[in-house]
Amino acid sequence: GQARVEARRADGTVTELAVALAPSLLGEISLLTAVPRRASVIALEPVLAWRLDAATLDRLQREAPDLHEHLERVVKQRLLQNVLRTSRLFATTGVPDVLVPAFQLQPVAADTEVFAQGVASPGLFVVLHGSAEVWTRSPGAEPIRVATLTEGDAFGEFSLLTGQPTTAAVRMPDGGVLLHLS
Predict the structure, then answer these.
(1) Distance of alpha carbon 37 from its chain centroid, rounded?
(2) Per-residue model confidence as pLDDT tens digits over 83-139
(3) Residue 31 is inside which H or E element, if any?
(4) How far is 13 from 10, CA to CA, in rounded Å?
(5) Rounded to 5 degrees, what angle do the CA atoms 79, 70, 57 make?
(6) pTM, rounded to two decimals
(7) Starting from the edge strand earliest in sequence, which strands make up the sheet with 124-130, in order?
């Protein structure tokens, strides 16, 4: 069968990421990154699907180490395709194929601070998978969350372009995957 893969952004807009035709691999990103699912799959017609749980996948990867490498390549390619399709940054450049190789993939563990407020410019980041929270703090005050970023959103650009220290800290509470341009 076939199914539509779509993501709902924090502002409520829905973006179609793909129409998956049989045979297709779905759900692999969350399974391999341990980040909660960020997309929905809607059957467009009757679909027959085989389900594989994390414990079985772990066992299969121990038995066939090449399987993990193959799935990791599939996930990286899918994440890149999704961000190129949904990111405002890449949509306006007109030359994503030239830009993407300059970025490095950066997995981020749960509850990790990507960078702190007031540090030297760490570069430009694009959220590939997961969500990032932007926090700012005035001297003597409590931190305030000023934004939540999701797939395709960029951060760190102001500090990178101005050469000034960062004006906010960025955390990924559930972990995820970033593209990073230092």
Answers:
(1) 11
(2) 766 666 666 665 556 666 777 888 898 899 999 999 998 898 988 888 899 999 998
(3) helix 28-33
(4) 8
(5) 95
(6) 0.65
(7) 104-108, 176-181, 124-130, 154-155
